[in-house]
Structure to design on (615 residues):
């Protein structure tokens, strides 16, 4: 009897252990809610800081490209146009390159170790800091492409996008360096999705006599489309927010021009350039621009997450 | 040749199309690895030739051609300090949050919301993190009256590190087999003992790999630092320097790449060499480390 009682006594936890358990759980809860607090904080802080500029310029800010600290006139159209145009063009160049590379890695064209090396090379490219890519773009890429841009201008000057004389640093170079930065994202996500497409789909297509590329285009890519789209949108969000390499190579001019061969601006490069020295309404206007950038990238991000959730279960 | 036979017809249109598309995908793969090879070889070539003992020990000289370039010691030390501050903030919060997501909340509404938030935070442009810290800490002088400081820079970086730490912890813990948890709880261990003694150690390698990769990524970030930590030409001499402007390798590269002087440009290449080599080293090492563990698990 005595023995049994002591056994029962030991089956209960000590109060202190119980308390530690509760404290541990709640502190983990608090730590995890930090994410929400920070996210909410970022949105609120940027919104309230931009309020002065918003009430002064309203939506006119989005459609004028005057940026004059002396006259206190601000409009971010050139920067918004630059952000949209550089990210869209770079993503359109990246999609075929990245998906093509992902197909190369997942198909058995080359021996496995070569494909693995290429795959890891592309992933290592993602590890290179963007400021280093910017340095490389300034000193290696820009001189290399100078002649090519002059040719482009002389051939295609009737297209508005190539209508101006090429300058040293311009939007087209920013697009090219963005392609280098987006390539790893699109490639690795496309590769992962292509790997997840069930093998029986491929075998069925081969079985009814489809050639390899017919299979890829009609069966495998459609099956992987949602994942690839999500990766593309993720890369698009990254392209819009990318700062350093773009700032270093885009030329930083707020004069609006349709042409990609003239210096341009993106919202993030505008922030990087002016934030340190700004005061008064300019700071608020910069926050307004930052708010627009944040909304754009949030929308793209949320849409990509929605795509993943909506379509990813199709082939499991 | 007969029209309908079962041999491979290398002149049929579908086979020509296939060959054509295959060669295009070879070309694309070649284009995809070209930038890495070019960037790394230029850094090895232009940066590696600048490396000397002085680079590691001297302060950078003010821009201009009349002096030598000096070294990058303050920036090197600054990067180490700022990245350490960021890690000290982001790792405990991230691992704690990841533990909650993976171990306590089994797919509840709150956990779904937080996971969504983590993904959104990971997509927030890095310069926005800098803008946020500028508004919150630098312009309000909340940190004992200091404006631009290494501490603020570390905080901005920690915002960028946090999502990746939470994600790797969450996913690493999810991979731990449930039997381990049940066995531990079954012999009477409490929840926190189970997590601290069983599941966290079991997931240690994958979490460590992810966290190390996150730190390496943060070490190369520039955008959040350019108006939080700013830049400094002077040695970091003591604890109180945390509250003043602090240099970092990435901001040094940015500033000196835009200088018109050749000496400063060379210093930027040297800093790139050090930064890229250490980041690539950490990356390759972490990947090999992760590879070894997955192979061990399969056996």
């Amino acid at each position: 009897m005595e023995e049994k009682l002591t056994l029962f006594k030991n089956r209960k936890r000590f109060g202190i252990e119980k308390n530690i358990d509760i404290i541990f759980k709640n502190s983990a809860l608090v730590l995890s809610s930090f994410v929400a607090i920070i996210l909410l904080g970022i949105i609120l802080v940027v919104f309230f800081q931009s309020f002065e500029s918003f009430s002064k310029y309203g939506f006119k800010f989005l459609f004028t490209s005057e940026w004059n600290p002396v006259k206190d006139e601000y409009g971010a159209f050139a920067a918004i146009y630059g952000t949209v145009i550089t990210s869209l063009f770079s993503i359109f160049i990246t999609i075929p390159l990245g998906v093509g590379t992902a197909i190369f890695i997942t198909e058995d064209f080359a021996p496995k170790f070569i494909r693995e090396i290429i795959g890891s090379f592309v992933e290592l490219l993602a590890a290179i800091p963007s400021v280093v890519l910017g340095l490389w773009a300034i000193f290696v890429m820009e001189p290399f492409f100078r002649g090519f841009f002059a040719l482009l201008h002389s051939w295609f000057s009737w297209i508005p996008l190539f209508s101006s004389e090429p300058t040293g640093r311009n939007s087209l170079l920013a697009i090219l360096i963005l392609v280098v930065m987006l390539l790893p994202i699109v490639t690795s996500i496309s590769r992962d999705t292509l790997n997840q497409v069930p093998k029986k789909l491929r075998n069925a297509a081969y079985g009814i006599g489809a050639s390899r590329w017919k299979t890829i285009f009609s069966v495998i890519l459609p099956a992987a489309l949602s994942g690839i789209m999500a990766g593309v949108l993720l890369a698009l969000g990254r392209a819009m927010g990318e700062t350093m390499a773009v700032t270093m190579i885009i030329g930083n001019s707020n004069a609006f021009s349709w042409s990609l061969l003239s210096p341009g601006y993106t919202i993030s490069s505008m922030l990087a350039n002016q934030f340190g020295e700004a005061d008064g309404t300019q700071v608020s206007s910069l926050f307004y621009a930052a708010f627009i950038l944040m909304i754009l990238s949030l929308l793209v991000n949320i849409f990509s997450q929605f795509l993943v959730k909506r379509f990813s279960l199709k082939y499991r | 040749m007969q029209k309908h036979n079962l041999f491979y017809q290398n002149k049929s249109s579908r086979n020509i199309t296939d060959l054509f598309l295959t060669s295009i995908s070879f070309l694309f793969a070649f284009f995809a690895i070209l930038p890495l090879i070019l960037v790394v070889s230029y850094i090895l070539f232009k940066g590696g030739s600048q490396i000397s003992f002085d680079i590691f020990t001297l302060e950078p000289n003010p821009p201009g051609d009349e002096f030598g370039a000096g070294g990058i010691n303050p920036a090197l030390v600054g990067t180490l300090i700022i990245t350490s501050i960021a890690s000290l903030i982001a790792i405990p919060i991230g691992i704690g949050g990841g533990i909650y997501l993976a171990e306590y909340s089994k797919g509840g509404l709150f956990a779904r919301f937080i996971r969504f938030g983590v993904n959104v935070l990971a997509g927030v442009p890095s310069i926005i993190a800098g803008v946020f810290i500028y508004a919150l800490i630098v312009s309000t002088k909340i940190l004992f009256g200091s404006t631009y400081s290494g501490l603020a820079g570390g905080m901005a970086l920690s915002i960028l590190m946090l999502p990746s730490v939470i994600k790797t912890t969450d996913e690493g813990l999810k991979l731990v087999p449930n039997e381990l948890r049940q066995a531990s709880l079954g012999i009477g261990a409490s929840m926190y003992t189970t997590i601290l003694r069983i599941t966290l150690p079991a997931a240690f390698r994958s979490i460590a790999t992810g966290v190390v990769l996150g730190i390496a990524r943060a070490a190369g970030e520039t955008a959040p630092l350019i108006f939080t930590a700013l830049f400094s030409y002077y040695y970091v001499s003591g604890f109180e320097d945390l509250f003043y402007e602090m240099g970092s390798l990435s901001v040094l590269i940015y500033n000196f790449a835009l200088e018109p002087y050749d000496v400063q440009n060379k210093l930027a290449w040297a800093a790139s060499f050090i930064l890229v080599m250490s980041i690539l080293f950490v990356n390759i090492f972490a990947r090999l480390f992760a590879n070894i563990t997955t192979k061990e698990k399969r056996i």
